[in-house]
Amino acid sequence: METKLQLLSSTLRILHRQFYKTLILQVVTPTFTLFLPIMIVNNLPFLNLQFDFPSGILTSGLVLYPALDACIVMYVVQDYRKAMRNVFKKSVDKIQSAVTWTQNTTTVNAQNAVLF
């Protein structure tokens, strides 16, 4: 496998390494968010323990998993991370320009009210 990887370009090898890390994290994430909490709850009656906890912890794990799965890809793969950073920057710039425009309009209206 290592000899086959040497035939690839360096950027492609880096991309393959990033996808490998992504795959490992995507395999480990459901273990901690889905399976481990359910295994604990299912095995507690066998230990004859009275354990009371909010059930929201289990449902939050079920809800968080799809979001975490997408976040893993966006965080580990550098190209996706750069693209998300650019989208976030553009959104922040639009919000800042809208706030600045609103502040300028409010200032102009206040100055006009003082003049009249």
From TrEMBL:
SUPFAM superfamilies: Family A G protein-coupled receptor-like (SSF81321). The chain crosses the membrane at residues 20-41, 53-77. The keyword Nucleus does not apply. Keywords: Membrane, Transmembrane, Transmembrane helix. Pfam families: 7TM_GPCR_Str. InterPro entries: 7TM_GPCR_serpentine_rcpt_Str (IPR019428). The keyword Membrane applies. PANTHER family: SEVEN TM RECEPTOR, SEVEN TM RECEPTOR-RELATED. This is 7TM GPCR serpentine receptor class x (Srx) domain-containing protein. It comes from Caenorhabditis nigoni. The gene is Cnig_chr_V.g17722.
